[in-house]
Amino acid sequence: MDEQALLERVHTQVANLIGQGAVASYIPALARVDPNQFAFALRRIDGTEAGVGCVDNAFSIQSMSKVFSLSLALQLLGESLWERIGREPSGDPFNSLVQLEHEHGKPRNPFINAGAIAVADRLVSHCADAKQQILEFVSGLLDEPVHYDLEVAASEAAHGSRNAATAHFMRSFGKLDNPVEVVLDVYFHQCALALSCRQMARATAFLCDAGVNPLNGERVLSERQCRRVNALMLTCGTYDVAGEFAFMIGLPCKSGVGGGIIASVPKQMSLCVWSPALGPSGNSMAGTKALELFAAEAGVSVF
Ligand code: GLN
To answer: Which atom in ligand 1 lies closest to the alpha carbon of residue 26?
Structure first.
C-alpha cells in the first residue's frame, strides 16, 4: 500500500471540511488557534512514516494525553487502578457530571474528564512529582524531550470551573485522595502537552505493537494491558460518539479538544490526524472524516 499517496488523496477529499465547525472556546488559549490547519501522520511498526499537511506543528494534545496518563498509571499501579475507575462507555459528553452522583463518584472510564482526573489523583499519590513523571514518560516514548504549553495550562486552570466541580464532587465521595488543586494542576498540565502529529504517531506506536515501543524496544505495557487500552479507546475514546466512530472508522481512537485524534491499527500502524475545528461532540470534523476515508480506502479495521 502506498500510504503517502493515500494520505494525499484523503487530504484533498477533506479540503472543504477544514475549518468547518468551531475551535474549543471554553479554553481561551485554544480559541486563538487558526482553524484552517490540517495534518495527518502515520507510522508503521516497521518504522516507515508518511504524512501530509503541517505534520510538525505542535498543538495542544488535550484529552489524547489521557492515553499516556492511563498507560503510566497502569505501569505503576497495575490492576488496583480499577478500584477507582470503571471501564464502561459513558454515552455522555466528556465533561458531564450527571452519572457521577448516581455512581457515587466513581467515573465510568479513564477517558472522560472525571476518569482522567481520578487517574491524575492516583499518579499524585504514587509519584514524587507527577507532572515531571508524565513529562518523562512521554519523552521516553518519543526518545526526545517534550514540553507543557504553560499558557494553555494556565488558561484552562483559570477557566476550569467544570473540571473543578467534577473533582470536588468526586472528593466529596472519598474518591480522590489528594487536594483538588494539586490533582487539577497535574490534569491541566497533561492536557497542555504540545506535540505534533508526527510525534503523536511515534509516541503511540506501542499501542499497535503489543505494548512494546518499537522506537527503542522498551516494553511500555504488557500485551494484555495494551489490548485493554485499545479496547477502552474503541469503546470510550471519543465520548458519546464512540459507537459512531466504531461504526464508521472501526479503529481504537482517542480525541482531544485541541482537534487531534489518534488511532491505532493493531500490529500495523499508529495514526494521528489534527485539524482544530470541532463538531458538536468535541471531535475534529475534518479529522474524523479523514480517518474514516483512510480506514475505508486502506481496508484497515479491528473487526
Ligand atoms: N482539558 C480539556 C478539559 O478538561 C480536555 C477535554 C478534551 O480534550 N475532550 O475540558
So the answer is: 10
Does the 3-62+195-298 domain belong in CATH 3.40.710.10? yes
pLDDT tens digits, 210-237: 999 999 999 999 999 999 999 999 999 9
Query: Is ligand 1 within 6 A of the CB of residue 257?
Result: yes
Catalytic residue at 66? yes
Is 257 noted as a catalytic residue in this protein? yes
For the chain, give every residue range classified as CATH 3.40.710.10: 3-62+195-298, 63-191
Class for the domain spanning 63-191: alpha beta
Specify the pTM: 0.98
Q: How far is the CA of 257 from the centre of ligand 1 (A)?
A: 6
What is the distance between the alpha carbons of residues 178 and 184, in angstroms, rounded to a whole number? 10
